[in-house]
UniProtKB/TrEMBL annotation:
<dbReference type="GO" id="GO:0005975">
    <property type="term" value="P:carbohydrate metabolic process"/>
</dbReference>
<protein>
    <submittedName>
        <fullName>Peptidoglycan/xylan/chitin deacetylase (PgdA/CDA1 family)</fullName>
    </submittedName>
</protein>
<dbReference type="Pfam" id="PF01522">
    <property type="entry name" value="Polysacc_deac_1"/>
</dbReference>
<dbReference type="InterPro" id="IPR050248">
    <property type="entry name" value="Polysacc_deacetylase_ArnD"/>
</dbReference>
<feature type="domain" description="NodB homology">
    <location>
        <begin position="38"/>
        <end position="227"/>
    </location>
</feature>
<dbReference type="GO" id="GO:0016810">
    <property type="term" value="F:hydrolase activity, acting on carbon-nitrogen (but not peptide) bonds"/>
</dbReference>
<dbReference type="InterPro" id="IPR002509">
    <property type="entry name" value="NODB_dom"/>
</dbReference>
<dbReference type="InterPro" id="IPR011330">
    <property type="entry name" value="Glyco_hydro/deAcase_b/a-brl"/>
</dbReference>
Length: 239
């Protein structure tokens, strides 16, 4: 039994933990930051949610902010109206697996099938193929790199812990204020239904985000989608 546990542990480290560390440390085929001044890409994971996503879209529309949503495939299937609204209001839509499961615990076949299934669902709704991918919890596995070749994998500069209700509105507001404004990619969550999250946590996120967007200096920030950020960076590299 002890030997079996050691073998399983070694396999888990080789298949899951080591690839995640290597990919993130050396930025292998992942995008983590822009380089344009006064530019922020707001991104939202884990939705769509029937309660919080419509309110978030109302808030973004009120302040004329464009964002990128990394949606869970099975939720997108349940709420096609919200996916359509995101697209119609100028937001971008990326993939966040078919179910919100860490890639540490997904075999290659199921990961590939889930991404393809999610992409098909989104394409059927908005008539566009998603090109961005963010793995849940930022976890990779040994087979993620070859499987994700068809997508641009997006990480972040700031992940603020907004999935926990105890963080509170004012603390989350202060964390938002501390985020840089030169190519930052901020992760927030418009659903509290995933493992480890608090169901009512998005309530705090919405309140803190509105406080942040009301700040005077944010009027000078250019809120961009990931495509806008990537395109700006590519033009700068070419020039």
């Amino acid at each position: 039994m002890k030997n079996l546990l050691l073998v399983l542990l070694a396999f888990f480290l080789f298949y899951a933990v080591v690839p995640t560390v290597v990919i993130r440390v050396f930025s292998l085929r992942i995008y983590k930051k822009g380089n344009k001044r006064n530019t922020i890409a707001l991104t939202f994971d884990d939705g769509p949610d029937s309660i919080y996503t419509p309110r978030l879209l109302d808030l973004l529309k009120k302040y004329q902010v464009k964002a990128t949503f990394f949606v869970v495939g099975e939720k997108a299937k349940q709420h096609p109206d919200l996916i359509k609204r995101m697209h119609q209001e100028g937001h971008e839509i990326g993939l966040h697996n078919y179910r919100h499961i860490s890639n540490w615990f997904v075999l290659p076949f199921f990961l590939s099938r889930g991404l393809r299934k999610s992409a098909d669902i989104i394409e059927q709704i908005i008539q566009e193929k998603p090109i961005y991918y963010r793995p849940p919890w930022g976890h990779f596995n040994l087979c993620t790199l070859p499987l994700q070749k068809q997508y641009k994998t997006i990480m972040w500069t700031h992940i603020l812990g907004d999935w926990k209700e105890k963080v509170g509105i004012l603390e989350l507001f202060q964390r938002l204020k501390k985020c840089g404004t030169d190519g930052s990619i901020i992760v927030l969550h418009d659903s509290g239904e995933t493992f480890g999250a608090d169901a009512n946590a998005p309530e705090n996120m919405l309140a803190a985000l509105e406080l942040f967007l009301k700040e005077g200096y944010t009027q000078k920030i250019r809120w961009v989608t990931l495509s806008e950020m990537l395109n700006a960076q590519n033009k700068k590299q070419i020039s």
